[in-house]
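S.,

As promised, the 2-(butylsulfanyl)adenosine run. Input:
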Amino acid sequence: MHSAEEAELATAKGRVEELRARIEHHSHRYYVLDAPEISDAEFDQLLRELGTLEQRHPELLTPDSPTQRVGGVAAARFAPAKHSSRLLSLDNVFDGEELSAWHDRVVKGLGREPSYVCEPKIDGVSVAVVYERGILIRGATRGDGDVGEDVTANVRTIRGVPTRLRTADPPAWLEVRGEVFLRLADFARLNKELGEAGKPLLANPRNATAGLLRQKDPSVTAARPISVYFHGLIRIEGRAPASYSETLALLREVGLRTHPESKPCATMDEVRAYVTDMEARRHALEHEIDGAVIKVDRLADANELGATSKFPRWAIAYKFPAEEQTTKLLDIQVSVGRTGAVTPFAVLDPVRVGGVTISMATLHNAEEVERKGVLIGDSVVVRRAGEVIPEVVAPIPSLRKGDERRFVMPTDCPVCGTPIVRPEGEAVARCPNLQCPAQVLGRIVHFAGRGAMDIEHLGERTAAELLDRNLIATPADIFYLTAPQIGQLPGFKDRAITNLETAIAEAKNRPIDRLLYGFGIRHVGASAARALADAFGSIDRIAASSAEEIAAVDGVGDVIAGAARAFFDRPETRELLEKLRRAGVRLDEQRATPSGHLDGKTFVITGTLAALSREAAKSRIEALGGKVTSGLSGKTDYLVVGESPGTKLDKATKLGVATLDEAAFLALLAGDQPAAADDAS
Ligand code: IVH
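Predicted complex:
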């Protein structure tokens, strides 16, 4: 070799080594420690430079190079991979009682209480990874527990699986067990891309992961951000951790990710608390879990307990309620929302899923029904995760009998009969009739709903009853409801009437961004509403601004501005605003100074009221122009006396302050003339 070439090769070799070290370092920061030091672009730049050098000098290429995570040869089929020892599954318990029974068996087996480690049970795909003298040599699926599939080329592409362990002194053999999965955010992104490309969507992160892991072309796997956590040893040579806690520490030390929510639990009470907490936080994690795993910590204890042919006796899975179930799709009907969107929904044979029984699930839109390929009469997989609306995930075509039929989107609005329109290029079909009863109801429900005016006790049912009886027609009418009117509704008696009245009175003082959001203007979501409220400070000022002025607000653009302008230009909107104003609903950032028949009156409340809370009583008084103070003085107009009043009652008598019992107070709120102060005491 020419000496110039030699020199170049030597320089290249030095640079290649430097790049590999830096890439491994940054991979570790990013994928294991979750604390990147450089941007993705800078990272890609390092990888590209390394790739270029390896291409120019193929003799420098090694199988453990970080560039080898991507690409590789497409395997025709996966070769069998025999695990060093059997990968057992976990036995399940489903409630606290079964958990205690398992613990009792452990205690009986050991003759004493062990300490445990708890961790989330990741709903992913089990893998076994082998490092020989620190180099990744094999990645395999679990298979039947003894023999899995060799998916090394794909496992190599997973960023959290280092191709080389981060230790100067690696064990001669390290065979570890882990769970690969897609984080929810990555899964959502993947499905969004598939949807945009018109491809069928993936049912859930677990299926998606399984599919990616078994891809024949590893570059497909490489292009997807699969994550991994390791949770056990299959075989180790050279080191011998004495507990599961030590195992986790060892894995972390050599650069293998373990679950950040793994937690030692010294007692069964701690285990129970862990399980309860994990179930409560189930949907706040980055990935799906289907339970918690409880493991006896000391390996000597675990060995003493041993295993059955299928399950270890030293570990148990505490399963949370399943979030996917199979049921029958009885029918597909459509509903009309507040924006007129006509949405197909599934009528299901009731099924228990995610801890509740569901009989309906959303199907989003007609295209989605097509894309999912569900037929009326199909057996379908349904899903309900946390607060998320239940949805039909996919049909199970193998269970078809032949009498299933396709869903046809109706041409007319099922509520008002107006022909449905579907603008070119939009997925959503709409009823264009703004007066469609379904839209009117939808607008009221949205207005009174959470995030908007938040009027408790005014849900869909009540709103529908009020509309049916012509007691309201627009959101503003809510603020004019009287007690006798509310009393006409089924189930509304004394206490319920007061509750609703109180909730309505309280809503008058909501910040204006909530009111603005409550109007349900197209494109004006909660954050746009907040931006507009902050910028203009009052509904009137927004209404008086041009589209350009509105569009100039940070976080608001032409589309939102156009929609807002169109809303405020409607004569109905002017009427609505006037009506709200007259009712004393706050229309600017400053607290409206409400006025009513209690103007300037000062109240003190003592004891417990039966019909409403202290807070609610205060809101009601304030909404009518009155004031509530804590200290009784000569300036107090009324002392409201509930059950078990304190010393204030005596004091009021001494000061000559009028007292009102609860009935008199409620009558006063309702607008009856207060009895002359003297008579009331
Ligand atoms: S320990 C012998 N820990 O759940 C015990 N498994 O239903 C080995 N899994 O096949 C398993 N998260 O793939 C363990 N933190 C965790 C886990 C976990 C998920 C999977 C694992 C196993 C399955 C059993």
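The two ends are 113 Å apart (CA to CA). The chain has a mean pLDDT of 89.

- D.
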